[in-house]
Write a structure and sequence with these properties.
single chain, alpha+beta, Ubiquitin-like (UB roll), 28% helix, elongated
Length: 594
């Protein structure tokens, strides 16, 4: 006789699986029933008239049931919008009033979307129409107006008024105070919100209070009067602002007293006034957007440049504000502008990427206004000679070696050059403009300069833009301009002229080094008044003809500091120039012999 076995114990996992199967079966059954119902409903809904759907659709809080058809509703909505835009509102305030027709705000609505929806309703899928019939549908009207357009609509009124803080100024030898002024600004956001509400309800008031934002001054005449006697100790203070590139500006405090706010025993600086000063007098000369460049290589290995890369430069306003305030309250009188640089995008072929030429390293430029035709021809040809040349890592660049022969056979023309104590025509006159521009490119790229000589006397071409002392004369074989590519990769030279400006740009791998130039410091001025005479038989005995103006002699010092990517600053490196004094020069007819 066999014993009956006990039924196996049902586990929780098994029960869960059964419940899941049951739920899935039930859901499938319900879905089939709903699908059958929907199919039947779809056919029923397709037979309904438009009025049955109009009763189910609203725009904002308004039902379309009163309209005869969708086309009728679309026409009426368009007409209502036109009438809305014709409405006029008298905006009133304590500072004035103005009546404005809504259309003057140039509002943009979603009217085209609503009318398209209504006109194309019969084209919507049957299931979608069923959903609208069962659940109904609410649409929204919307209105958009440019905030600047709202403000512009009141530009012919005096309702708005700028905020003015009380400020010191200096006039006729006296410290005076310009009074404060409360600021009033039209609240354009509040007006936009009101217009949307009027558009939603189609209820436009004939007049409305103009919303204004009031800005009260924080610095009053009374505040400044209490400290006016204390300003005498700083009104004559001069602060020199220096661009790391070398340009300088001098700020005399008495000419900018609106910057000053008394603060106990010291002084604060008005941030708004300081920003206005930067924008008006400094920023336009310093701040620039980055400029990208593309370099290509043809099948002959010659490089071509599209554009010329430049870093973007912006003054760090927060840092400048703090540093200016520190200098104002100290014995210091010089402030270097804190500059934030933005790297450009330099697009290069793979052959240059392999050489590490991917970034802008640095550039230099010089101006050649009033140059003769021959001089311009020579310097343009000289710059083109260097365009596209590579400098290997660790290589010492020699200008005269790279330049090659400078003679008529190589396309150069005769032009004035300085030779000893004389200035006379010679082939290649103007090449010193090329070498000076190259010197500046190497200087501002932070490269070691191993050979450079200034001109014998100061030449006006090289005084721009930052003063004398940044020129480099060359003459084959000496003097030469030499510098070392101490980066880890190749440097590629781009040379070109634009208008009356000559440029050299270096591309390579930028290692983050920055250059700060301090100068020029000019001193030891001297002159020679006795004229220099060159006798000639081409003039009658004793008759003089002007040859060359006198040149003042002086010395100039510039200091270069190189700051590496980790913030380490080098010792200032001196670049000294000593310019000779030259007397005025004349031709004179050879004296008659007895």
């Amino acid at each position: 006789m066999t014993k009956n076995k006990k039924p196996a114990k049902t586990t929780k996992k098994a029960k869960a699986k059964r419940k899941l199967r049951f739920a899935r079966g039930l859901a499938l059954s319900i879905s089939l029933l709903v699908l059958a119902a929907e199919v039947g409903s779809v056919f029923a809904v397709q037979a309904l008239p438009e009025s049955a759907f109009l009763d189910r659709i609203t725009i904002e809080d308004y039902s379309l049931r009163s309209f005869e058809s969708f086309n009728h509703a679309s026409e009426q909505i368009t007409q209502l919008d036109k009438e809305f835009q014709k409405q006029k509102i008298l905006w009133t305030s304590d500072r004035g009033e103005k009546e404005i027709q809504i259309s003057e705000f140039q509002p943009q609505t979603n009217l085209d979307i609503l009318t398209t929806y209504l006109n194309d309703f019969d084209k919507r899928p049957a299931v979608d129409r069923l959903r609208v019939f069962i659940l109904g549908e609410k649409n929204h009207s919307s209105l958009t107006v440019s905030l600047s357009r709202i403000k512009e609509s009141y530009s012919d009124t005096e309702i708005e008024q700028p905020l003015k803080e009380a400020a010191y100024y200096f006039e006729n030898g006296e410290i005076k105070i310009s009074p404060e002024q409360t600021g009033y600004e039209i609240d354009t956001l509040a007006i936009l919100k009101a217009l949307n509400e009027y558009h939603r309800t189609l209820n436009v008031p004939t007049s409305e209070k103009l919303p204004l934002v009031v800005h009260e001054p924080t610095l009053t005449t009374k505040d400044l009067e209490a400290h006016i006697d204390e300003l005498g100790q700083i009104i004559n203070k001069k602060i020199t602002l220096q661009d790391p590139d070398g340009a300088k500006w001098t700020v005399v405090i008495k000419d900018h007293l609106n910057l000053i706010i008394p603060d106990g025993e010291s002084y604060k600086v008005s941030e708004d006034a300081l920003n206005d000063f930067l924008n008006q007098e400094i920023a336009t000369e310093v701040e620039t957007e980055p400029v990208n460049a593309t370099i290509t290589e043809n099948e002959d290995g010659i490089y071509a440049f599209e554009g010329s890369a430049r870093r973007g430069r912006m003054i760090d306003r927060a840092a400048f504000y703090q540093e200016f305030q520190n200098v104002l309250n100290s014995e210091e009188d010089t402030l270097t502008l804190p500059i934030i640089e933005t790297d450009p995008v330099v697009t290069v072929p793979d052959s240059l990427k392999e050489k590490g030429v991917t970034d802008l390293v640095g550039y230099g430029y010089s101006l050649f206004y009033d140059s003769t035709v021959n001089r311009i021809h020579n310097l343009t040809q000289g710059i083109a000679t260097f365009n596209g040349q590579l400098i290997a890592p660790g290589e010492e660049f020699s200008f005269t070696t790279r330049m090659g022969p400078i003679d008529a056979a190589h396309g150069y023309r005769a032009e004035l050059v300085i030779k000893g104590n004389d200035t006379k025509p010679e082939y290649g006159g103007g090449m010193c403009q090329v070498s000076s521009t190259m010197f500046r490119a190497a200087l501002y790229s932070g490269l070691p300069i191993t050979a450079r000589k200034n001109h014998s006397y100061a030449v006006s071409y090289y005084a721009y833009p930052n003063g004398y002392g940044l020129d480099a004369t060359v003459y084959d074989p000496l003097p030469d301009l030499r510098f070392i590519n101490d980066t880890e990769n190749y440097l590629l030279i781009q040379g070109y002229t634009e208008g009356k400006t000559a440029y050299f740009v270096f591309y390579g791998t930028y290692d983050g080094r920055k250059v700060e130039m301090d100068g020029p410091y000019s001193y030891n001025y001297h002159s020679v008044s006795t004229p220099s005479i060159t006798y000639t038989s081409e003039l009658p005995p004793g008759e003089r003809k002007f040859k060359e103006y006198a040149h003042t002699g002086f010395d100039v010092d510039w200091y270069r500091t190189i700051i590496t990517a980790d913030g380490t600053a080098s010792e200032p490196e001196l670049f000294h120039s000593s310019y000779e004094a030259r007397p005025p020069q004349y031709y004179e007819g050879t004296p008659a012999t007895e």
